[in-house]
User: Fold this.
Amino acid sequence: MTEFHNLKVADIYKETEDTSVITFEIPESSQDAFKFRQGQHLTLKAIINDEDVRRSYSLCSSPLENQWKVAVKLIPGGKFSTYVNEELKAGDTLEVMTPSGTFGVNCNKEKNKNYLFFAAGSGITPILSMIKTHLAEEPNSTCKLFYVNKTAKSIIFKEDLEQLRNTYFGRLEIYYFLTKERRDIDLFNGRFDDEKMKVLTEIFIDIPDTSEVFLCGPEQMVKYVSQYLTNKGLPKELVHFELFVTGLSEEDIKRAERLAQQNVEGTQVTIVDGGKEFQFTMTKEYDNILDAALGAGADLPFACKGGVCSTCKCQIKEGKVEMKINYALEDKEVAQNYVLSCQAVPTTEKVVVDFDV
Assistant:
């Protein structure tokens, strides 16, 4: 069962003008519960103007550092990011859920791997954790980072990245791309497009020699780069991504509209969480399992409620559901009956879902 812990903010500082980095103080008694793998995230909760507000942020520290750090970029109008960047201070406490998420792969000291990373803006946070960890744990592996930002001043963790490049000289290559500033070399001006990707795959990227690719950033960038690389022959199973969703596709909208018409009233739902069962009957009030369960009094993990963070992931043990949208689960997870409960609309009269996964 996933629970929130009250954690003290040990330190908070401005990494860039609009991005704050929080370091949490984890009591020794909770450190086992907060063990994480590079690429995972923390869900933070705060009561802001009498509202329960939750957001998930990737850990930017490495598991090897014994530190728990997240970076929060200010989003105009964003309740949580505004609170963090304008009000939160060292010594304050936040409610924090134990680490979760499946982004990333395990390290293997015996293997020589060549990793590619594509990031945009604050998408660097899980990528930084991965680069630190793989370089330290796999002495024969290499990393190449292609990192898009608006301006040189807005590059999050530039100093950390440069230190890593010096520490692991010859094993870490970094290429910065700027969209709002001109550089002398035209290749590094603007976002990824066919012209840039052609040069990158001819000069900087050896597709047959690539072990894994990780992408984190806006949906448009992630989908474009991953499709370009797979079209060039990179096996799809080597591509891993985490999205920042800016809007729903036409396909998503149509599916959500269709499922909104689904009759869920009377569906019997059994929730397994923390080894205990919780049963309730769906009503017209809610169409997805998470909201219906919360409305019935269940205490379940969630954060974005937008199909992006995977905090509310569970496994269907009996019955069937269909998800409105899914930006968090990989195809192999869906094939194993994992769903996002915030997007899961029952399509059978009885459904059993397990959160102990």
